[in-house]
Amino acid sequence: GACFELVRRPETILAGRILYARDFGSFEAFDEAIGGVMEVDRERVLSRLAGMTRPDFDVRLSVNFWRPVEERAYGFVREVATAQQPEGVQVCRMPGSLYLRARNDAAAAQLLAKERCEMWELFAYMREFVMPAHGLFMANNGAQELEICDAPESGLGWSYIPVQVNK
To answer: Are 100 and 160 within 8 A, CB to CB?
Structure first.
């Protein structure tokens, strides 16, 4: 019953806080920082954003998580209408792209032999099983993996992987 679908997302401007793995001594330190920043800075940073277009949708940005650790970044961001943001807020222009997406519902969790799953847990399954089965490849246009949480209190949302049909 899990549903995977191809959707096109337009270019968007994302703003919030982005951490770069290269700024930490190890993947463990980077991972620990992600958890710490999410708890400490999330609301403070997101409440300062100018021109939020979808203030009710939390977006977690996973940059290059399919590549070596030093190329990775992670952010908690929201879609905004302008790149002009207060000091201390980072901006990322996400190119328009074709995406493979899946909802992290009970049917998707069953694919991972779980009752519930986090949105990020679907990325590996999508890359390793769904994409090859349908002739899809990671997009090379700069678009990145997104977790878009449309019901923050329930943890439900969508996992998006930028794809292209041929290499």
So the answer is: yes
Q: What is the pTM of this model?
A: 0.89
Report residue 164: phi and psi, to 5°: -140, 160
- Sequence-separated (6 or more) residues with CB below 8 Å from residue 75: 14, 16, 17, 18, 19, 60, 61, 63, 90, 92
Identify the burial level of 75 via C-beta atoms within 10 angstroms of its C-beta, where 0-12 means exposed, 13-18 middle and 19 or more buried. Answer: buried
Question: What is the token pair recorded at 2?
Answer: 């899990």
**pLDDT tens series, the chain, 167 aa:** 899 999 999 999 999 999 999 999 888 899 888 888 777 788 888 889 999 998 878 898 999 888 888 889 999 999 999 999 999 899 999 999 999 999 999 999 999 999 999 889 999 999 999 999 999 999 999 999 999 988 666 678 999 999 999 77
The C-alpha atoms of residue 106 and residue 104 are separated, in whole angstroms, by: 7
Q: Return d(Cα 52, Cα 81) in angstroms, integer.
A: 6
Q: What's the residue count for the chain?
A: 167
Rounded to an integer, what distance in angstroms lies between the CA atom of residue 127 and that of residue 137?
A: 8
User: How far is Cα 3 from Cα 121, in angstroms, rounded to an integer?
Assistant: 15
